[in-house]
Amino acid sequence: MLSKALDFFSNDIGIDLGTAYTLVYVKGVGVVIREPSVVAVFNNTNKIRAVGEEAKRMLGRTPGNIRAIRPMKDGVIADFEITEAMIRYFIGKVTKNPKLIPPRVVIAVPSGITEVERRAVKESAIHAGAREVLLLQEPMAAAVGVGLPVEEPTANMIVDIGGGTTEVAIISLAGVVYSRSIRVGGDQMDLSIINYMKRAYNLLIGERTSEEIKICIGSAFPLEQELTFEVRGRDAVAGLPKTLSITSQEIRDALDESLNSIVEVVRNALERCPPELSADLVDRGIVLTGGGSLIRGLDQRISNATGLPAFVADNPYYAVANGTGVVLENLSYWLSETR
User: Fold this and answer.
1) Of the CATH numbers 3.40.30.10, 3.40.190.10, 3.10.290.10, 3.30.420.40, which one belongs to the domain with range 2-37+74-141+319-338?
2) Distance of alpha carbon 316 from alpha carbon 52, whole angstroms
3) pLDDT tens-digit map of 219-238
């Protein structure tokens, strides 16, 4: 009886705990938070200075006594204490009385994480104020979030390209038939651009500039009209500020290795797909989600490499978070499915 009363009054929430961004879904409301997974702390005390958007603005700009940390790496916890503080911040932001009535929390995690990493995520959420925690594989959450008929006996293929990982899964009858997680995503693409600018132009740029270049002119397939972008950074030789113009073709070359890794893992998944399900994918195609899916022409590149239709889902940023929301609406069913 007490458990049912708690369920009625608590604000159950879903968390897409991403390497680059954290999204929070509140049951009955929708996605209410999308903020960078960044925490700024004081060096001497490790006390939290800022979380999320405010902390990201400090990346590369902090004074000596403050450092901005990204506590998630490759989709998993790299700094347990800081991640716990970040989750507590987000839970407190959306829950009226987290201490009085702790929320039940659904957290989406990469399919390839270890049992130790799963336990670390769960413990972080419990310590941060969650009453009960359900971990949901990201590709399943993404598939549910974009409305794929995962409970039917047909193949659904999802490719979720996040900040730290790319998740590929083939789903049928509410179960994952095949999944693979590789630690290549938006962050790796940003690093590739940073390395290219240094190698080609001796220009040093930061993470924020690299991400801006990727968003503005990044592409996976030749464009009808190539784009240009003005980059500002520091000359590695002279040590002075420098501005130059680059093209989308150059950035496509810089991203090529990361994009090839994504295409290869999709091809491997198709090779391991049971023949009965492969036939379904000829008609249903491949659905792309996550921020990385918005790279221009990535759907076309995957389609050309596999011979199957590929398309980007509506609101790909929110697919995983929306999936946690769907699960929250029928939490007892999903708890029984995952135990």
Assistant:
1) 3.30.420.40
2) 20
3) 999 999 999 999 999 999 99
